[in-house]
Amino acid sequence: MDFFTLVGIAVALAMDAFAVALGAGTLLNPVTGRQLFRLGFHFGLFQGIMPVIGWLAGIGLKKFVTVYAPWIAFSLLILIGGKMIYEALTDLAEDGERRDPTRGFTMVLLSVATSIDALAVGFSLSMLGVDIWTPALVIGVITASLTVIGMLTGRKIGSMWGERVEVAGGLVLITIGVKILLQSL
Fold first, then answer.
1. Which residue, 105, 102, 101, is CA-closest to 34?
2. How does DSSP assign the chain, residue by residue?
3. Contact at 8 Å (CB) between 79 and 113?
4. Domains held by the chain: number
5. Dihedral (C-alpha) 151, 157, 161, 164: value to the nearest 10 degrees?
6. Which of 30-39, 133-142, 169-178 comes out lowest in average pLDDT?
């Protein structure tokens, strides 16, 4: 596989993570270096690991993952997007503090939801006989980079437009989930 094809695949896979990071950046004011690192690292790590898992699983589990992966991603994104909209409209998390999507279970759910499509890429690469380690590294690094860019961009947008952008971020997550599901049907 040539380098430009690999970068194209990596950028395409990272677009969901970029969109989610854009929404996360709108929630955080200011965005700290720690938050940038956490979300960038986790999104990059999950996006890099999922193709390896798909590649290792190979053809045996392809039918299962092909059928259920879109439903899993759809469910997670609808859940998180709905929660994001609810919190934007109520303006506070359960503990009365501004919520931080770069922490806890929300970050793990977002990491899984934005990287689950990379499993299919791993399956495809295993069928093509492509060694997985370089693609996994490139996919992870590009995803981490675009996540950081998305968060920084989201921070600027969020400081200008506030809660409206938070609702839009939740709607983007829901739209991504619906898109994933519709593409699989």
1. 102
2. --HHHHHHHHHHHHHHHHHHHHHHHHH-SSPPHHHHHHHHHHHHHHHHHHHHHHHHHGGGGHHHHHHHHHHHHHHHHHHHHHHHHHHHHH-S-TTSSPP-TTSHHHHHHHHHHHHTTHHHHHHHHHHTT--SHHHHHHHHHHHHHHHHHHHHHHHHHHHHHTHHHHHHHHHHHHHHHHHHHHHH-
3. no
4. 1
5. -50
6. 169-178
> What's the predicted TM-score (pTM) here?
0.73
Tell me the per-residue pLDDT of 115-133, one tens digit each, with 9 for 90 and over. 887 887 887 788 777 889 9
Give the domain extent around 20: 3-184
- Residue matched to tokens 């593409």: 183
Q: Which of these, 53, 54, 26, lies nearest to 39 by C-alpha position?
A: 26
